[in-house]
Specification:
This protein is of the alpha+beta class. It contains six helices and twelve strands.
Length: about 230
């Protein structure tokens, strides 16, 4: 579990491609403090497990599916990445609840400066946009941001100079692909509503087809003969 508050910008040292996995070596410093093998670190919003580490680097295995479903597919040596260690129980939740499980990717359609803010327009699929709400939370490359507005084609976020300097979002260009994790609360709400909808669809015919009515009749007859 993460907060979406980026701790450090790391650099890709090397990418070692194996038969069924990719080993990702990240040069960094701050996120190595108190980190041990087996711990989780968010890399561009993707929860990865530390498999090896040194004084100024760590290594993590990345599955092929993760590569194909995120902007890792375009990752190369010397690329910068957002890094965040897993949230400690006694830590502050400065952003919002981020799981490190990417829902999909979006494309930066427009970047515009407005006084002390940088406004990003992100194009995304309907599968993503249905979870995006005005003034809600979204994680872009692992960074917790507030949604300014959303429509059926894209959504807009705004960042301040501090966020631009402390994350890789400030270095993004139009056309770049960005990892998106929607607010997990929206997904739980959707699941809850689906369950309520299914509950209302219970009919006598459905109960009969699944044997519930016959079971109840049998139970009633048994109860009558065995008071």
């Amino acid at each position: 579990m993460f907060t979406g508050i980026i701790e450090e910008i790391g650099k890709v040292q090397k990418i070692v491609k194996g038969r069924n996995k990719v080993e990702l070596y990240i040069e960094c410093k701050k996120v190595l403090q108190e980190t041990k093998i087996g711990d989780s670190i968010s890399v561009n919003g993707i929860c990865l497990t530390v498999t090896n580490l040194g004084e100024c680097w760590f290594c993590a295995d990345v599955m092929p599916e993760t590569i194909s479903k995120t902007n890792f597919e375009k990752l190369t040596n010397n690329d910068n990445v957002n890094l965040e260690r897993a949230l400690m129980v006694n830590g502050r939740l400065g952003g919002h609840i981020v799981t490190g499980h990417i829902d999909g990717t979006g494309i930066i359609e427009n970047i515009k400066k407005e006084e002390n803010a940088i406004v990003f327009t992100i194009k995304a699929s309907n599968d993503i946009l249905k979870y995006i709400v005005n003034k809600g939370s979204v994680a872009l490359d692992g960074t917790s941001l507030t949604v300014v507005t959303v429509n059926n084609q894209n959504f807009i976020v705004s960042i301040i100079p501090h966020t631009a300097s402390k994350t890789i979002i400030g270095r993004k260009n139009i056309g770049d692909k960005i990892n998106i994790e929607c607010d997990i609360l929206a997904k739980y709400v959707e699941k809850s509503l689906e369950n309520k909808k299914n509950a209302h669809s219970i009919t006598e015919q459905m109960l009969a087809e699944n044997g519930f009515i016959d079971s109840v009749k049998t139970f009633m007859k048994t109860s009558e003969t065995n008071p």
